[in-house]
Design goal:
Helix content is 60%, strand content 12%. The protein is mainly alpha-helical.
Length: 121
């Protein structure tokens, strides 16, 4: 079968293409992954994640740590929560926020390791 993107510079590696397509995530998964990285692609949100990596905190704690307003932090937390990157827990009148699960911690840690490694080269 001739592939629509074949060229004369090299033969199409049909097995590799087939394997890649067989392992391609569903569009809904791609969309969710894209939304995750969009949320993680903001310096303020990354700083917030680094603060919450130390443990759960209320909005005031995060705002104080980053020298920002509670309103600005609340706005960012809303998007992070909507994308299931952070979670909240209510205790009386207080709401505490933390990183949603170990997967988010792992992505953040691996990305930081990568950045530090590349900075050393």
């Amino acid at each position: 079968m001739e592939h629509k993107n074949s060229c004369s510079c090299c033969p199409l590696h049909q097995n590799a293409v087939h394997t890649a397509l067989e392992n391609m995530p569903k569009d809904t998964e791609i969309d969710a992954l894209s939304a995750f990285f969009k949320m993680m692609g903001d310096p303020t949100r990354i700083k917030m994640m680094c603060v919450m990596a130390q443990g759960e905190m209320c909005v005031q704690d995060i705002a104080s740590a980053l020298d920002m307003t509670k309103s600005a932090i609340s706005h960012q937390l809303s998007g992070l929560k909507e994308n299931r990157i952070v979670k909240s827990r209510r205790e009386g009148k207080n709401v505490f926020y933390s990183i949603d699960d170990d997967h988010v911690h792992t992505v953040l840690n691996i990305a930081m390791t990568h950045v530090k490694h590349k900075a050393e080269e």
